[in-house]
User: Fold this.
Amino acid sequence: MKNWATKYGVDTAVSPLTLGWIIAIASTVCFSVAPPIARGAILAGLAPTAVLVGRMVISLALLVGFIVAISPDRLRIERRLGLIAFFSGIINGIGFIAFFAALTRLDASIASMLFSLSPLVVLGLLTLRGERITRRHMARMALGIGGVYLLIGPGGEVDMVGVALVFVTVITVSLHLVMTQWYLPGIPARTVTLYVNWGVTAVCLIAWQWAGRPWQPPGPTGWASILALAVISTFLARLLLFAGVHRLGSGQIALLAPLETLLTVIWSYLFLDERLTAVQWLGGLLILLSMALARRWRPWPRL
Assistant:
């Protein structure tokens, strides 16, 4: 018996562009749960560097096992490209440490709101290499940043050291994304993820050592948090991230930051009891509108 789609002439094939956006949005969802989970673990008394080390070591072990089992040839990479990916991971690792330190001073929702300013930095870096920034990009950024402003609140009191730490994350993550697009095009996502994660893990281990190797038995809840961060927000999220960058470009991926922010705010509201005002929810709607502008009826040039 024929498939119903074939019988009625329905084309069920997913275009490369649509697949790219599905992958990118899935990555965004995976990343969005990280701040509230990490904030909850820190509030429970776990040291930020210890949580990071547990997260990265477990995710790296999962990734190596996955590649060895599925496609061991993906472990190999040209020396120069491997060093670039590793250095990109070091930059990203600095951002990881800064963001986790910020979570000791800021609510997860506020930290993520500030992080959603990263599209400005990514698109600014892309223009230095002659990339074309369209009016649609500018409109999306304006809506996203306006939404973030309403979410934070014009008169909101925030810890400025925490804000500075988030901006360190914004800069480092932006550099990490554009380096992937500039220097690692065509490299399989699994390979890029592996070497980047080596760099991130190295930085986290150094920071943990420098902090005096703080560790305390996490307990069931603590281990659940670390495993969720390792499996969902690192292993899966990064594989999807680099697959999305290869299909859409880092500029388009960065413009999904407002959606990640909105999702993080929702998780923080549900699980950490971080409350939002009516004005802040209006900001969330602007962020959703920014996300809606990501899809056009005809393909745009890849950034």
Notes: The chain has a mean pLDDT of 82.
